[in-house]
Write a structure and sequence with these properties.
mainly alpha, Vanadium-containing Chloroperoxidase, domain 1, 10 helices, 2 strands
Length: 239
């Protein structure tokens, strides 16, 4: 890890210090605006490198091993929604009954997309099917939507970190679900393992910033309390 990247990651652990308005009162600005993943993630594997070749072989192996059931599960996980985690949270959860939770994670999705789009446009790493005609993806991605990092993996891990903070009782299962959600992108044939691993790092960084950001605090608490009530869990301590 370079010194610059180390300092940027270490900065995530520092407390947020409110700025002072002209009248001396405290005010805060969003610290999640403009998260630049190109300063935090390693570059994708270079074309033709051993790592890139291993990446491609992993995609082809997943393609050869996938079953009809796995195909359907992977396609279902193409939906970028917190409600893909209901197999861990509970089967009766829906946007209509959890409006604050749905709105909060929709906002999370938009933050993830903006951050990942910047990184994808910077590296312009091709999708597996663009690297090899042996790859037969289960979906057609948008033209110009590059591979590195995986946006779905980023969202999956951002969601796991946030839900794990809201529901520490379910943290281990949530991270297992995020890993499967991310792996399904390789099963789909639309991402390399290195894309998914970068998404795991990106999602963790974004969630860490969000949890420290006063601009998100009220919405986070509202979603947490709504979700815990729906799951009939004890109210969380603190705010």
């Amino acid at each position: 890890m370079t010194a610059r990247r180390f300092l940027l990651l270490a900065a995530l652990l520092l407390p947020v210090v409110p700025a002072l308005a002209a009248d001396g009162s405290a005010q805060t600005e969003s610290i999640t605006d403009g998260i630049d993943l190109t300063l935090l993630l390693a570059p994708p594997p270079a074309a033709g490198s051993p790592t890139a070749l291993d990446d491609l072989q992993a995609v082809l192996a997943a393609q050869a091993a996938r079953t009809a059931d796995e195909d359907e599960a992977a396609k279902a996980d193409a939906d970028r929604s917190v409600f893909r985690f209901t197999d861990v949270l509970g089967p009766n959860l829906a946007p209509s009954t959890l409006p604050r939770t749905a709105a909060f994670f929709k906002r999370v999705e938009q933050l993830d997309k903006a951050s990942v789009k910047l990184a994808k446009s910077w590296w312009k790493h091709p999708r597996p099917s663009e690297v090899s005609d042996k790859v037969h993806p289960l979906s057609v991605e948008k033209p110009g939507d590059w591979s590195y990092p995986s946006g779905h993996a980023t969202f999956g891990y951002t969601t796991a970190v946030l839900l794990g903070d809201m529901l520490p009782e379910k943290r281990a299962a949530l991270f297992d679900r995020a890993a499967l959600y991310a792996h399904h992108r390789v099963v789909m044939g639309v991402h390399f393992p290195s894309d998914v691993e970068a998404g795991r790092t990106a999602g963790t960084v974004i969630a860490a910033q969000l949890l420290r950001d006063p601009a998100w605090h009220a919405d986070f608490l509202a979603a947490r309390d709504e979700l815990r009530k729906a799951l009939m869990l004890k109210p969380a301590m603190g705010g």
